[in-house]
Design a protein that fits this description.
Layout: H1 9-33, H2 39-65, H3 72-89, H4 96-122, H5 127-146, E1 149-153, E2 156-160, E3 174-178, E4 183-184, H6 192-210, H7 213-223, H8 225-230, H9 235-258, E5 263-264, H10 268-271, H11 273-286, H12 291-307, H13 315-331, H14 333-341, H15 344-356
Antiparallel strand pairs: 1-2, 1-3, 4-5
């Protein structure tokens, strides 16, 4: 007796999105094994996953919750430095596998707690005010790390916010965080396999949250706050839930980022507001609330400038044209009508009708 498995629309969508990542991973592994990937492309595999995680997690706040946050790079910075500090501290005393797993969990949890603490006062604001405060948070985190000096010796942990000499380390002491010079010697534990697994987990977490009862409550808050509150939805609870999960996933991206570099520094190009705005561009171009769109947009826009380095004089022009085309394709009413008219589901439906006829 044959049984038919009925999958819901949301489950099918989740499987398709996760399947895209799995297929891309398999293809890259095959190409890498055959020696068909350049050193540039191999070096971009982990950053591609990092930026995709950042875009998907930010879409949870901006697209699903409907709040404009410009401090996402700050949460990434928290996860990066907490995990790098932990890994460097236990570099000689703990095996690489368990140490990296704990670092991932620790970076994500601390970033999520930061999001929760920041969200409690900040989420009372809306619109531009919320964007300004979250932007300030990202800058504050970066500047605090740049004046921190942490070291250790046989007497324990030493801390200073003046300079490295003020810690009074012994001759055998080790500087773990050296102010603006950051953290040096973080174990290089990140690889494409781990990054792809974390990207898949991020997609599963976000998509399941969106399609769950709390996710519908979060979208109800986005669509009409007063109506949502009138039917008994706890506005503060669900906004904090979305914001903290988004921050935690950004922290996990920061863990991957920190363990993909030998030197980690809190510089504006790494964790400044430009990084937050760049991730926001991926979200907007992929479609607000469209998780799969954020995934695809981040991959395309990270790859494009690197693959066009031979066209050095024109690559930023081409990049700008691609941004404009993607914006028109995603947001123009005529483009939306075109996508709906020639969507795969509609074409398959027409073929089915012809076959039945």
């Amino acid at each position: 007796m044959k049984t038919k498995m009925n999958l819901t629309k949301s489950t099918k969508s989740t499987l398709i999105t996760v399947g895209i990542v799995v297929v891309a991973y398999i293809v890259m592994q095959i190409l890498g094994g055959a020696g068909m990937l350049s050193s540039l492309m191999k070096g971009l595999l982990v950053p591609l996953c990092i930026y995709a995680i950042m875009a998907v997690s930010l879409n949870l706040t901006v697209g699903i919750l409907g709040e404009l946050s410009l401090g996402h790079a700050g949460f990434m910075c928290v996860g990066a430095f907490v995990s790098a500090f932990f890994s460097l501290y236990f570099k000689e005393t703990m095996a690489a596998g368990p140490r990296f797993i704990i670092a991932i969990i620790l970076g994500g949890v601390v970033a999520a707690l930061s999001g929760l603490l920041i969200g409690i006062p900040v989420l009372r604001l809306r619109g531009d005010y919320l964007a300004i405060v979250t932007l300030a948070f990202g800058e504050i985190i970066k500047n605090i790390i740049n004046v921190m000096y942490v070291g250790r010796d046989e007497q324990g942990i030493h801390f200073s916010m003046k300079d490295a000499y003020s810690m009074n380390l012994s001759s055998e002491g080790q500087i773990l965080i050296n102010g603006a010079q950051g953290i040096t010697g973080t174990p290089n534990d990140s690889n494409f396999t781990v990054a792809a697994i974390l990207l898949v987990l991020t997609l599963i977490i976000v998509l399941n949250l969106v399609n769950s009862r709390p996710g519908r409550a979060i979208m109800a808050i986005r669509d009409n706050r007063i109506a949502a509150e009138s039917v008994g939805i706890n506005i503060t609870k669900f906004k904090l839930l979305a914001f903290s999960i988004s921050a935690g996933l950004a922290g996990i991206a920061g863990v991957l980022y920190a363990h993909n570099l030998s030197i980690l520094q809190a510089q504006p190009k790494n964790f400044g507001y430009n990084m937050s705005i760049m991730i926001l561009v991926y979200v907007v171009l992929g479609g607000m609330g469209n998780i799969r769109g954020s995934l695809i947009a981040s991959v395309i826009l990270v790859l494009l400038p690197e693959l066009m380095r031979q066209l050095n004089d024109y690559r930023m022009l081409i990049y700008s044209i691609v941004l404009i085309v993607m914006m028109i394709f995603n947001w123009s009413p005529k483009a939306k009508e075109f996508r709906e008219k020639y969507s795969i589901k509609r074409l398959l439906g027409k073929k089915t009708e012809k076959g039945e006829a």
